[in-house]
Design brief:
19-stranded mixed beta sheet, 21 strands
Amino acid sequence: MIHHPQIKVPATYMRGGTSKGVFFKLTDLPDTAQVPGEARDRLLLRVIGSPDPYQKQIDGMGGATSSTSKTVILSRSESPDHDVDYLFGQVSIDKAFVDWSGNCGNLSAAVGPFAISNGLIDPARIPENGVVEVRIWQANIGKTILSRVPITDGQVQETGDFELDGVTFPAAEVPVAFKDPADGEGAIFPTGQLVDDLEVPADVVAGGVIKVTMINAGIPTVFVNAADLGYTGSELQETINGDPRALEMFESIRAHGALRMGLIKELGEAANRQHTPKVAFVAPPASYTSSSGKVVESSEIDLLVRALSMGKLHHAMMGTAAVAIASAAAIEGTLVNLAAGGGKRNAVTFGHPSGSLRVGAQASLVEGRWVIDQALMSRSARVLMEGWVRVPGDSF
């Protein structure tokens, strides 16, 4: 038997928002992994510890949840209008594939700090004390993200008093703006409708038809009314994730939504596109107790939202889905807007399993089509560990 020694790859383990992942500089990757393809995917799978039939990722850096099975590759941007190119890979936990079909909004908050600390930003632009606006090209969806990173004594400031529900400890606030966040070059509403009747199997939803808002903003998302599924919108993870029939129902809605949105050509393709679209259910505001035991009062929020990621209910809210929520809430008549009380609004505070989050978006109607100028939210980021990640030399 041939024993292959492990190789060392420079890497940084970072938290961004309510997610964490392994960050790489493109030029630090082995030569075969510096270009898209099988070698890159195999390397990232081995780094994270996938595919793992036990779904624990014990032999890798992943945390066995969609929020912690993530990778990021960064490089100096080839565009003069951007500082850094940001490529995100969502690693499947139990299957051997990396999904490159969308962005991670939470880890977007960590891109600027990583870029500054790893020499990807011109040192002349970094003040001794102040803020650096990092211009990020999101390569997965071809969009611009602006991140305002605080600097103290010439270094990225990571500690602070900004609190984010879903993250235990406070940190420095990093405002993030997603410019024109519609996914790809298609319409924000792929069908041209704010609300659609989505056909699904009758054993999934009684009658075989359910009202949905399907939107491409931040990340393709299918929104459903919680009441139409028999839920209140205040459910926590265990209620959904401990119910196999519920997970099957949501996956069926997601797959049929993907087909209707034109993201896949046949239903079976949804199984190999786990990252997108997301599916979320919404409801009017109501008081509930979050997963931390904190009581969220109905008077503090505009609506309730619960979203699924990689087949499970998310413990808080994906950053890209928060962009979709903000965008849909800004457009009168969507299910999200109606759950928030209807009317014109530029910002909403929504309740999620871990607490609440305020997001904003600017929407305008241009030649009969809706356009999202930008979506705004605040996150935080912190380096957890840096150095090298080791992988067996025969793994890619």
